[in-house]
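Progress note, sequence design subtask.
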């Protein structure tokens, strides 16, 4: 199955000049979603890691089923104020301002190996904040994985310290 055919392209969203890759059309197709998760799992199966971590919200959509498929635990990086326990924070830049991700202080034990996952790699800013949280807790990021990579935006270069894995490239 060509998974690219299952992703809707929306021109000029969220602003003029952007070609938005809408994964909701892939997610609603049960077979395509299953193939996407299994295919991504096959790309990371030989990596050594104890946990999968992903940022809110689309990192949950890809990361949680990936963790389930691989028999690993999942650690969410949530928007500010959404986690009930004691947290650490990482700020990251958005197109028009900044935002904050948080992770429970007890989410990762020092020395645990972590695969960090999100739906899409563009410039790398959001995923880097998740990586920062993992590393501040003493976790070791063994790789970062994405359903989609926008190669022209060079996020892979921004994450050059890490092994970057992507299933679909534009």
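Output:
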């Amino acid at each position: 199955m060509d998974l690219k055919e299952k992703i809707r392209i929306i021109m000029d969203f969220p602003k003029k000049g952007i070609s938005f890759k809408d994964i909701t059309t892939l997610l609603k197709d049960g077979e395509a979603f299953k193939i996407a998760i299994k295919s991504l799992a096959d790309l990371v199966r030989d990596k050594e890691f104890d946990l999968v971590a992903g940022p809110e919200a689309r990192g949950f959509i890809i990361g949680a089923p990936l963790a389930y498929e691989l028999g690993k635990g999942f650690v969410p990086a949530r928007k500010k104020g959404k986690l009930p326990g004691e947290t650490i924070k990482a700020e990251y830049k958005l197109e028009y301002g900044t935002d904050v991700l948080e992770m429970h202080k007890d989410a990762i034990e020092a020395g645990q190996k972590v695969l960090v996952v999100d739906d899409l790699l563009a410039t790398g800013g959001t995923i880097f904040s998740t990586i920062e949280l993992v590393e501040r807790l003493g976790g070791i990021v063994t790789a970062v994985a994405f359903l989609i990579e926008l190669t022209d935006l060079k996020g892979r270069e921004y994450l050059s310290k890490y092994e970057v894995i992507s299933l679909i490239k534009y």
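Residues 124 and 155 are 5 Å apart (CA to CA). Work on this subtask will continue into the next period as scheduled.
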